[in-house]
C-alpha cells in the first residue's frame, strides 16, 4: 500500500522537500470566485440569500421561522439523549474546561516611581460564532467540535456565543449537537452551513446578528469564506486537510502506528498520514498492518484514498535526523512513539500538538485529554498555535500620567516627535506644560 522510502535517497529528499512546502495554496480560482459571489449576495440580500442557498443545498423546506433552533427542539434532543452519551459528553467537557481555565489571562498594572501607571486591560469580545460541520449529512455529528470551540469562548467570558450548522434534508439538527451546545450553555443555534453561514456571521442578517470572532472547521468553501471575511471579523485559522506525523523507532508497535495513520486518513481523502522511522523492519511491518486493519473500517474507502494519495513512510538514519525533519514539516499532530519520548520533547520546536509515547493516540487529544484539537495545519505550526481562550480575548493598553511625570518625559517625547516630523505630537506636550 505504501512503499517505505529511505530518507537519504534522492527520492526521499524530493519527498521531504515536497512535504516541507505542502499545501501552499489549496484554494482554486473557481472556489474563490464562488465564495466571493456567495458572500456578496449575503451581504446585500441578507436572509433572502441565506434561505435560498439553504433550500438549494441543504433543506428544501426551510422557512425564515425555522432557521433558528427552537426551545422545543432542544427539549426533544434532551428526551432522545442516551445516558451513556450524556456521561461521555460531560466527561469530555470537564476535561476540556479544566485545561482551558489555565489559559485565562489577567489584566495587570505597572506603577513607576514618578507616578506613571501603565498596564493591560484584558476583555473578551462581545460575540463569537461557532461553525460546526454537518458531518456526513448529520449521521456523524461532530460534538467534539462544539466543545472545543465553545468552552474556550465560555471561559473567556464571551457574552454571546452562537452556533451554526447545516441542517439535514428534513430541517433538523442532530440531537447530539444540540445536547453538546446545551451542555456548555449555548442556546442560540442556527440551521445554516457552508460559505453563506460564514457570511451571515460576518455581515449579520435580520435573523442572524453579526459576531466578532468566527471559529470552527469546514470544507474548502468554509475555509475560503473565513479567509475572505478575515479582518472584518477575527478567525481562528485557515485550516487545511488534517495531518499526523509519527516519529517511531524500533520500540514502537507497528499495529499502533498503523492504527494512528488510519485514524487520520479516515477524516478526508486529502488527509496526510506520515511516518518517519529509524527501523526498516518497522516500516515494513507498518505496511502489513495497514493492509490488515484497513478493510475493517466503515470509512475504508476514504482512508484508502488518503493513504494512496498522501500516505508516507520514510526511513531515517537516526532520530536526530527524524526530529530535524519533523521540525521542518511542522505538522498539526506529532506523535513520538520512541524510547524515552520526554527526552526528545525539548528538541521539538514546531508542532500543533505533541503526543508522547506508544500509549498516547492522537484520538485522545481529539476528545478527552483536554487540550484543544483545533490546530494549525499546512506547516503553519511554525507560526501559529492551537485555538484557546486567547482567541476570544483582546487587550487594551492602559496609560496614566501626572504633570510631574509628563515634565520628566516631555523633552524625550518632543525630540522623538520632531525627528519624525510630527510637530503637533510635540506640541500636545508643550501646551500642557506651558512651553509655547
Can you describe what's shown?
There is one protein chain. This protein is of the alpha/beta class. It is 45% helix and 15% strand. It has helices at 10-20, 29-45, 47-57, 71-80, 83-101, 143-156, 175-183, 194-203, 220-229, 254-265, 280-293, 300-310, 319-329, 341-344, 362-367, 403-419, 423-433, and strands at residues 5-6, 108-111, 117-124, 127-131, 160-164, 188-190, 213-215, 234-235, 243-248, 272-277, 312-315, 333-337, 353-356, 393-400. A 6-stranded parallel sheet has the order 1-11-10-9-12-13, with helices on both faces. Strands 6-5-4-7-8 form a 5-stranded parallel sheet, sandwiched between helices. Strands 2-3-14 form a 3-stranded antiparallel sheet, with no helix packed on it. Helix 6 (143-156) runs parallel beside helix 7. The longest helix has 19 residues, at 83-101. The protein is globular and about 85 Å long.
CATH architecture of the largest domain: 3-Layer(aba) Sandwich
Shape: globular
Overall average pLDDT: 95
**Biggest sheet strand line-up:** 1-11-10-9-12-13
Number of helices: 17
Any idea of the CATH topology of the largest domain?
Rossmann fold
Regarding CATH, which class of the largest domain? Alpha Beta
Summary?
The chain has 436 residues and is an alpha/beta fold. It has helices at residues 10-20, 29-45, 47-57, 71-80, 83-101, 143-156, 175-183, 194-203, 220-229, 254-265, 280-293, 300-310, 319-329, 341-344, 362-367, 403-419, 423-433; strands spanning 5-6, 108-111, 117-124, 127-131, 160-164, 188-190, 213-215, 234-235, 243-248, 272-277, 312-315, 333-337, 353-356, 393-400. Helix 2 crosses helix 8 (194-203), helix 5 (83-101) packs across helix 7 and helix 10 (254-265) packs across helix 11 (280-293).
